[in-house]
Structure formats: structure tokens, C-alpha cells
From TrEMBL:
Domain spans labelled A-factor biosynthesis hotdog: 32-163, 202-288
A matching Pfam family: AfsA
Protein name (record): A-factor biosynthesis hotdog domain-containing protein
InterPro entries: AfsA-like (IPR047757), AfsA_hotdog_dom (IPR005509)
NCBIfam families: ScbA_BarX_GamBu
Amino acid sequence: MSATIATSQRPGGLCAPHALRSLLATSIPRQYVHKTAQSEVLLTGWFPLGPDRFRVTARWPAGHSFYGPVYGHHDPLLIAETVRQAVPLLSHAAYDVPFGHRQTWHTFRYAADPAALAATGAPAEVEMDITCSDVVRRGGRLVSVHLHVELSADGARLGTVETGFANLAPAVYRRLRGPYADIDEAVRRAVPLAPPVPPRQVARTDFADVVLSPTNDPHRTQLRVDRAHPALFDHPVDHAPGMLLLEAARQATHAVAHPRAVIPTGMDVLFAQYVEFDAPCWIQAEALADGADDGAGAGSGERAGSGAGRVRVRAVQNGVPAFTALVTTAPVSLPAAAGRTAGLFIPRQSAGRTW
């Protein structure tokens, strides 16, 4: 239980309960997905399919300030952000979780079809059929739940997600976090923002969107926690959010593959503990050789050499593993001519990888 999916305060100006279901069937107010900016809301509606079964709809924009197309494909982390938004929506709308409670990730796993991720230059209409299981309640309140999600985009099967999360009341969260629950104090103790790696090495075009900083170890970077980032830090929080850690895993995977072009078609993630602001968090990434199990040592391997394969990513803070991810990649064919390709600049010559 180590990365908050979402936190919010009680919204104002929303409709009465008898009109809520009608409203949420056609639009999703930002408070229900724990966003400050309505422009960051991807979800467009929801309705129940049966006991603990729901359909949630979303629209992926043709271009997004952060989760834009990469190598001609929709950013796979749009899958993660879309499901992340569905967690507080269903918590509040379907399971009567009060506003002000926090939803915290335990595990997250997605697998996507690269063909269904192909960007067309138009928005993508996304549907999620969600089945909730292992629903735990205490005192009538939701405590934890597991989600199985089947996704489609523009009518084509996109992939699946499995995730589990806990719901924490404010008093429980304060007890769990202790002195780290004070946002102002957490920010005051934060380590300085480290310089970024070159954006092209992590499939980014803007230095401000890079979440890794180089070190002297080619297999290790430092997590960059830019609390002013408009997408990753839409509102103040007291620790590194889960989407920042997923982005770090994705960028570390691109760095391992660089200069080859890949897209992360799957992640299997465990959140072990919170990543705090007051100490460096080290991101370790290594390509797994063919036949290596998830805990095996790194190897170049034929699959990694071709741009396809698996990358193991760990986040370690104060000597303790805080986050692990096994990332599956698929190679992407690029045009022979260099230039701007689906929102990502591909250099004519790539410098050696630095971290």
C-alpha cells in the first residue's frame, strides 16, 4: 500500500443524490476523479451492468499535454490513467465512499494490443467493462476491492487491467502516514529537483516531462519529483503519486532500449511502500534475457537487442524497495527519414545512452 491513486475534498455545487446517476451517465465532474482541472478528466460516463459490474466510458484526446502519442501510438499510460480515474469514480458513485477518503494502490497490471493503440489523429472512444471482486467492507464502508477491466478503443479490443486498491478514511490515513501526512512539512523537507536526462532517451520531447535524472551508474537514475508538473501533480500531495512511478518505469524502459524505438505494451507493478519527498529515490532498470524469470539478473538477450522483450524496474529509497515493475515492450518500426513522428522527435543520429 504505497501510492495514492487519488485524494479529494468534498465537492461543492454538485446535484442532489436523486439526480446523480443521470448526471454521471453523460459527464463526470472533476471531483469524482480527484482532479483539479476539468481538462484532465478522461472519463465521460458510467452505468452499472449488474452487481459489482460496471461500464465506464472515456475519450482519449488526439493530443494531450503529457500523455500524447508516441511513435504513432496512443500513450499506453493512458490506460493506467483512465483506470486510475475509474477507481475514485466507482468508489464514490457506486460504493458510497465519502469525499476526502483516499484510494491507494496495492498492485497494477495491464496488457495492451499494440495494434489497438495505433493513433489515427482523432480522439479515441474507450469503453471499460469493470468487474469488482474481493469487495471488503468494514462498518458499512468500503475497505478494499480488486478490479478486472476489459478495455476497447473505437470498438476494437484494447487490452486488460488487473488492479487492487484500498480505501482509507482521513483518520486512518493520518495514522498510517504519521508526520508524513502534513503536506506543507513534506514539501519543506523535499530534496532539490535534480537535472533531467536528455528527453529523446526516454521518448520525450520536453525536458519538463522527464522524470529521471542521470547518475554515474548506467543502470540507475534518480527519480525527479517536479511538484509543479501540471499533469503528474494536479493537486498537492504528501508523497510521490502512483502515476509518477509508472511514468518512471516507462521512461526507464525507453532508456534501456534507446536508441531502439519500443512501446510498453504491458506492466506488472507492485507498490510496496510510499515514496517520500525527503530522500532520493533511485530507479534501477535492467533488460531481462530470454528465458529469465522475473527475479533473474539482467542480460542483453536477443529480444532486448531487437527492441522487444522485458525490462525489470525497481524504485529504492533509503535502501528499501518501494516499487517494482516488470515492463513488456514491443518494437516499433520508424520511417527511414528522420524528423517528427507522431509527436516524438527522432534524431538522425543518437548519442550513446547516458543516465
